[in-house]
Amino acid sequence: MESPIRKKMLQAFSESDGEFVSGQALADFLGCTRTAVWKHIEELRREGFELEAVRRKGYRILHAPDKVTENEIRYGLNTKNLGQTIYYQESIDSTQKKAHQLAYDNCPEGTLVIAEEQTSGRGRMTRSWHSPKYSGIWMSIILRPNLPPQQAPQFTLLAAVAVVQALEEVCGLNPEIKWPNDILINGKKVTGILTELQAESDKINSIIIGIGMNVNSKQEDFPEELQKIATSVAIEKGKIVSRSSIIQKILEKLELYYHLYMEKGFGPIKLLWEGYAISIGREIIARTITGTIEGKAIGITNDGVLKIEDSSGRIHEIYSADIEIQGNS
């Protein structure tokens, strides 16, 4: 974890909006000496921050490196809770696994677990998730809503809306949501969301939302079996993009919709989700543990359950399945 002084220093630079901040103003704000300020400035430089120092004006950050450490995420982050506590590791087995440990140990709500690489990343149904170093976003966020456990699946859909809007706003892309947890661009998967729970019979203790996003991967970076079905933000955008900017926007959107959900319920989130859903109104095949259902996806329930109308007019409610959209690979 970074020092409180470094955290406050990045806050000061973020609030300065690109203007110079004097050494004395930083010292006063941080409650430390000018020498200590200089030492922290040098630490930021060593981490890859490009800082300009001008006599009688002070310091300003010209460029932040494309890493996903605490400092890079903190600089420019506009949230009250989400991401205000960050657990970063260069390499980790699974951010979800670490987040479960931290949640069990009663870490603050909004704690973010993030890594440059996962060695045992996982998705739904215990599948592995390809998580190479420095190319993507591999993170987990811990929420503690005062809700019954049966409402937890709605948070996958809430997170999907946050991710889609972040990609729209930061990257100018047009992602779509494939129920229950995939984000697609031009029909290929760019992001997966995994929502897990720590709960008692009548109360959620923690919801842990895992987000894995292919950001700056090249096509040849994917294993051969994924090349036809997976893509990255950079492939679709045609250029490398800032991972920290996407992370910041996801956290901001997630916080916004989390508060909306707690105030107004799932209704507004459901409307937003359906607006981005690629499968609604389409003929699909749903492969469940108990069998296969074919029909038209007609919407989701207020619990986030998928509704499929088969050829006989019968409506099936699907809680968990692999979805194949007819006509798509």
Automatic annotation (TrEMBL):
DNA-binding region ranges: 23-42
As recorded in UniProt, its EC number(s) are 6.3.4.15
- PROSITE patterns documented for this protein: BPL_LPL_CATALYTIC (PS51733)
Could you say which residues form the signal peptide?
none
Question: Record-annotated residues binding biotin?
Answer: Q118, R122, G123, R124, K189
In the UniProt record, does the keyword Chaperone occur? no
Keywords associated with the record: ATP-binding, Biotin, DNA-binding, Ligase, Nucleotide-binding, Repressor, Transcription, Transcription regulation
Biological role stated in the UniProt entry: Acts both as a biotin--[acetyl-CoA-carboxylase] ligase and a repressor.
Protein name per the record: Bifunctional ligase/repressor BirA
